[in-house]
Please model this.
Amino acid sequence: MIAVTVGSDKMENRTDLIRQLRKIEITTNALVEGLQSGLHHSLFKGHGVEFAEIREYVPGDDVRSIDWKVTARYNRPFIKEYTEERDQTFYFVVDISGSGTFGSETTKQKKMLEVTASLAFAALRNNDRIGLCLFSDRVEKFLPAKRGKKHLVSVLNTLIDHKPVSLKTDLSAAARFLGTILTRRSSVIILSDFASPDFLGAIRILRKRHEVIAIRVTDVREQELPDSGTVALEDSETGEQIIVDTSDAGFRARYSALVEEAENTLTASLSRAGIGNVSILTTDPYDIPLQQFFQGMKRRRNHGRIL
Model:
């Protein structure tokens, strides 16, 4: 059992979160086992490998591995061979802005905490390095990647204990920071609702050196409005309020259509940028979509397709 320290002056419901983390450790063994092969072998080609030897080319070898200098010297083709490193580096980049406090049954922040914990346990099983970056409209906390249970405890404690400085969101600030500070090729797993302006350019730059995976956590009430009469809707990041009549079926339909259009646009934009993405609702289990996503990455990698 992993023990997570608790301070008396921290988050109001931290005890519940601690219990949830312990439950995750116990009950997600099947998820961890299912994720390991997909998570561990899904990274982009060339990552997690080290040079082994140069040998003579044989039919069937990948021509992209040919060492042209050696080939020219001996006047016959030679290729470079590599062996896979078993350890990898994962950075969990978690959105702690005000929009994460929203949720119909559980908040987006709690769901992101659960998902991060499950993936971190999977990485621990593989003796991989894990790091953490918490962001709002700035990077508020950064833990460099390390191995081991002690470091995992530190990551989980930080997720629970950190009180956001800002309620606003700027994912591009986090992407630029990571692009500057990460020297080792890593898999950067971003957990957010991605309600942030103009972040794709910075993410594309980060993607040139690192694999970037987007885990989008949203709530069903963000996708469709219930018929609740006249209500006040408040932006959790800016505090701005508007009054709407949710009993108007036409208004609810237009709202759902706009949300769907925005979702489709974001998904297409991430895919064009070479960023794997999966969507998770706060009301639904996350094990199956994560398993399908990482196993799908593994299949695409085996067929030579890049995300």
